[in-house]
Predict the 3D structure of the following.
Amino acid sequence: MSKKVRLGIVGIGNQGSNYARLIVEGRVPNIELVAIVDTDPVRRDFAVEQYPGVAVFEDYVALLDSGMVEAVVTTVPHYLHPQMGIQALERGIHVLVEKPAGVYTKQVRELNEFAASKPELTFAIMFNQRTNPLYRRLKEIVESGEIGAIRRTNWIITTWDRPQAYYDSSQWRATWGGEGGGVLVNQAPHQLDLWQWICGVPKSVYAKAGFGFRRDIAVEDEVTAVVDYGNGATGAFITATHDLVGTDRFEILGDAGKIVVENSKTATVTRLRRSEQEINASIPADDIWKMTSDQFDPDEYYTQETLEFDTAWGGQHAIVLENFAANILDGTPLIASGSDGILGVRLANAIHFSSWTGKEVPMDFDEDEFLALLNKKIAEEGKFPQRP
Amino acid sequence: MSKKVRLGIVGIGNQGSNYARLIVEGRVPNIELVAIVDTDPVRRDFAVEQYPGVAVFEDYVALLDSGMVEAVVTTVPHYLHPQMGIQALERGIHVLVEKPAGVYTKQVRELNEFAASKPELTFAIMFNQRTNPLYRRLKEIVESGEIGAIRRTNWIITTWDRPQAYYDSSQWRATWGGEGGGVLVNQAPHQLDLWQWICGVPKSVYAKAGFGFRRDIAVEDEVTAVVDYGNGATGAFITATHDLVGTDRFEILGDAGKIVVENSKTATVTRLRRSEQEINASIPADDIWKMTSDQFDPDEYYTQETLEFDTAWGGQHAIVLENFAANILDGTPLIASGSDGILGVRLANAIHFSSWTGKEVPMDFDEDEFLALLNKKIAEEGKFPQRP
């Protein structure tokens, strides 16, 4: 029998119990679930009943000090990931953090720096959408240069509809002090990661956010962000939790082609026969009427391919869990290094920062200034402590 | 034989000769083409040869003073529309201005104010896309309240690909001093008008524009604009002249439904069975998993209808010309009053203003401040005189 990683799950809420189920059902063959910790007695009772033979703790430090686990996954409110990650790594325990890696870059940077000082330990993040065959293929196409240098990106992702009951289901959800944001920190981190993973990291962002626009919450339920990649290329990101019909349309325009993805399922890939700049220079004045009257023959300029993928929900989490354990056991490359988690947090912070100040914000914004603004929101809300 | 309006065409370039052809081919039964004016001798020779029996002038004031025409259409560089419109109206001549009505709101406001002082004269604008059955139907649906109050709008319209040869085809094109802008004043005015005609006029705008990004021009060949309607609703408008593949996707999200238009041809109209806020309030906590796992039954919440339209290019200009003449002859209501032209100019100005200053700009921006910035661009370009 091959070796299994002895895992502890920190937080047995929706996501934690999902992972526990995947493991006990045998869908993550290289992981053994040995311990669970939760501060909520109701959830501990659930764990005791549901997972016989698994140790259940009230205090996560006690779990870390128990010697029972060699790795943990942190499925806790976002603010807690960095400190729990550091405390685990301090004890020589491998860490898989849930997304987002934290709420503000300062805390995530501390986690990353600490993890960098422990290169012998595995530090990963649950960017399960990076296992989605569609997005993997898109990344390949972009990285291979098939569509050329990126000139513009647009992602409208409003399929994150959430009813008020969802927001009312726990005290910390959709608060500044408990969750640290709305759609940007809870639903859209997948797209914030994929967007940057595939298209690159922007240099600055301007954003307009609706705070409690269509839901009774303090944080944002809608965002319109415009990014500048610093080389002339720009992009737009639009997300919302109040669109029952929901749009998921992702466009990447390159110098040599274009990708249009609908519903995270169908990708239309256009490959130009020559670069856009070459085609542009070659069209004679006499042919302009063809462009302006839609009479030109597309075949002359490009080919199109349609890629169809199944919706890839569910199995992805098991893949990331297995990959995390495989990295621990035999050094299999990680799907997503934990240190990548800061990218999405930074973009979400920059979007908040811009929407609060009404100004364009560079991606290397002042982290302390951001935290001061966040703490002001937390103080105004008056429900949770400010953050260090 | 019924009466015909005696029309003069001011400027016999591409658009002017298109209108002349429509008239002489009998596609505008209530207009008689009696005179043409152009400053370019080559175009005048063309007119003499092409339209026998039609008087050809070199100077447009001479045409206005000739007593031959009772109405004119101005198909000249955008800057000239206001002054030519005023000079015609001064002489009791009805005016149809080509879009855009002008380059900056100050000059268009002067035209509008003068036209308002001559209510007995017809003052119209060539917003031919307002005759497009698709957009007319959308406006009906929105105005009837079928999709409720508008909460967000997105229009990606990058089907305006123009090669360098197009820009090089005349001296004034794509210059600050000659044309006054790029895609916003030349290609996208149709969408800027339709967007506001259907969805309402925003209160402020933030925009990022690419000036000579992918074409060798001084003005903008790409724009990303974010608008705020002042009531929480926001919108995005993205356009470019360097996307050979081209996207035309227009979304309107309302409180009671949604419209998604693809390629100005296919509109998917979703009508919610109850308002989004009622549905939101009615979804119990136990059903949240249905939302988060895409297991809910859409039929429970809404119906969808797909409307297909033919591409409506070509005939529209004849319809607007005929409507203009009908208004003169018997008071038939105008498709687009000339005074509406200021809306698109104002939005284009606000987008330029924001992209130059990097700041969000209110729609009631300072017109003199805008003109000063525009004149600075004209001075830097050094090809054309500054504007008063």
